[in-house]
């Protein structure tokens, strides 16, 4: 199964989660899609919101 890379912009950093607080919950907007919308994702590592 091949994974496709989808670029997204962090709209809002919601907060940290996980047992050791290493995961950040963010609201993102995907780039290059005709249908606009936001989705919540869990992100590992450093995150910067706009």
UniProtKB/TrEMBL annotation:
What Gene3D superfamilies does the record point to?
A: Nucleic acid-binding proteins
Gene Ontology terms, MF aspect: structural constituent of ribosome
- For this entry, the protein name equals Small subunit ribosomal protein
Q: Which family does it belong to?
A: Belongs to the eukaryotic ribosomal protein eS28 family.
Which GO cellular component terms are attached?
cytosolic small ribosomal subunit
| Keyword Ribosomal protein carried by entry | yes
Fetch the InterPro entries from UniProt: NA-bd_OB-fold, Ribosomal_eS28
Q: Which SUPFAM superfamilies does the entry mention?
A: Nucleic acid-binding proteins (SSF50249)
Q: Name one GO biological process term.
A: maturation of SSU-rRNA
């Amino acid at each position: 199964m091949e994974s496709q890379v989808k670029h997204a912009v962090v709209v809002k950093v919601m907060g940290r989660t996980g047992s050791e607080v290493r995961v950040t919950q963010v609201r993102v907007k995907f780039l290059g899609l005709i249908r606009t919308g936001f989705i919540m994702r869990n992100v590992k590592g450093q995150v910067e919101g706009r």
